[in-house]
Amino acid sequence: MKLSTTSQYAIRVMIFISQNSDIKIFHAKEISEKLSIPYKYLTKIMSKLVEANIITSTRGREGGYSIAKKSVNIKMIDLVKAVDDSLHDTTCVLGIGLCNENKKCALHDEWREPKESMLNMFCNTTLKDVSEEAS
Amino acid sequence: MKLSTTSQYAIRVMIFISQNSDIKIFHAKEISEKLSIPYKYLTKIMSKLVEANIITSTRGREGGYSIAKKSVNIKMIDLVKAVDDSLHDTTCVLGIGLCNENKKCALHDEWREPKESMLNMFCNTTLKDVSEEAS
DNA sequence: TTTTAATTCTATATTAAAGTAGTAATTAAA
DNA sequence: TTTAATTACTACTTTAATATAGAATTAAAA
Ligand code: SF4
Ligand code: SF4
Q1: Strand D contact with A59 (CB < 7 A)
Q2: How far apart are alpha carbons A96 and A82 in whole angstroms?
Q3: Which residue of A has its CA nearest to B124?
């Protein structure tokens, strides 16, 4: 019961970028080393974040990545959706999902609460929330 | 954010067996067909359930599988742990897990509630709860 | 005792995620 | 204009989960 490695990487990258707002541009090499994420794998993830308009990239010499909007406007769910949507709502814990409200197994309702609670966490938490040290 | 296919299969098998308590012995072929689970994959899972003393097996002609204890005494977490522990407690949503109570990211606490809520669901729900039609 | 129907064991195949490699494209500095 | 530093693209490799195949083992029925 965890996020994919890809999603975890994406979140860690964004936290890193957000926490170093004095730095305006980040290089893949630098991020890769600082966060111990395989370089080539990282660049793939960065491209997805660019595609999703969360990161702006500048190619060529003196290029790099920078954050595309304020961290308060980036929801955690956006990050996950941008890279692999590994917490895509599954509705059914058993992977069936065909039952309806009238005929359902006990897990259906049991599962709903924690699932929604988890989804809400990603929908209602912004990158800013996560990046700021808990007071 | 879902259970592994293996865990889903295990749960579905146990619900099926529990809901058909008039039948005393089940054959792999029968379960496989009824639940559309690949035969050979199913038998592997059954072996794990046998190993975990959740299922009793009888080899040879007229053999098969039967439930080893009352469904009220089988926790859902036991099923998952028996086959692949796919909801093994991850502590850290980012796969780092080295931070402590004094230095932690915002996700640490955000994550705790839904995670524990989900884990509790599997610890406190028995196969009986899940097998009985919601009233 | 032989046959048959079942589980169990060992090995292999397929698939998707994770990770790696090399080249192309871009851009600014030299 | 050449070179160096960067991201983007395309293809391949590795790994782990899922799935399949076939032979070995067991035990009751015939
Ligand atoms: S009732 Fe149970 S099996 Fe059916 S969709 Fe809901 S969780 Fe899945
Ligand atoms: S503080 Fe954040 S990164 Fe550290 S263990 Fe907790 S969830 Fe993981």
Answers
A1: yes
A2: 26
A3: A110
Rounded Cα gap, residues A72 and A119, in angstroms: 18
In B67-96, the residues whose Cβ lies within 8 Å of chain A are 76, 86-88, 90, 93-96
Q: Are B114 and A118 in contact (CB under 8 A)?
A: yes
Q: Considering the domain B5-132 in this protein, what is its CATH number?
A: 1.10.10.10
Query: Whole-number Å distance, CA A67 to C1' C28?
Result: 21
pTM metric for this prediction: 0.90
Q: Where are the domains of chain B?
A: 5-132
Strand partners, A126: A75
More confident residue, B48 or B132: B48
Torsions phi, psi for A74 (to 5 deg):
-110, 115
- The reply to whether ligand 2 has any atom less than 6 angstroms from the CB of B90 is no
- Mean pLDDT for chain B overall: 89
